[in-house]
Sequence to fold (123 residues):
Amino acid sequence: MSVPDVPRLLIADDHPLIRTTLTRLFRGAEGIDLVGMASSGGEATEVARRTRPDVALMDLRMPSMGGVEATRRIKEDAPGVRVIILTAVYDHEQVVAALAAGAARVLLKDVAPRDLIEAVREA
Fold:
């Protein structure tokens, strides 16, 4: 897969405050195209099918379908999508499951904003 000049980003998080904060962060980041947002894993898979992002920033724990299953489904539909899991609590079992499902990275939500932007660009 060739590296896109401007990565297309999907944000998936069930907390409105986190989604809003991430949206503002990435809308202000040069060189990243925010193409979609989702509030659940199921919605993330639907939005990913419609928008074809290069990168999905995915919360690990969401209602109805969590980040692990959403990652698995997105990767089955579009193997080139790079999924970055974002989580508030490090749960070793869930992190291993997310990586096994195809996630490229797992980051804690206390990551510095500039480091999160850089992770999306590098993905």
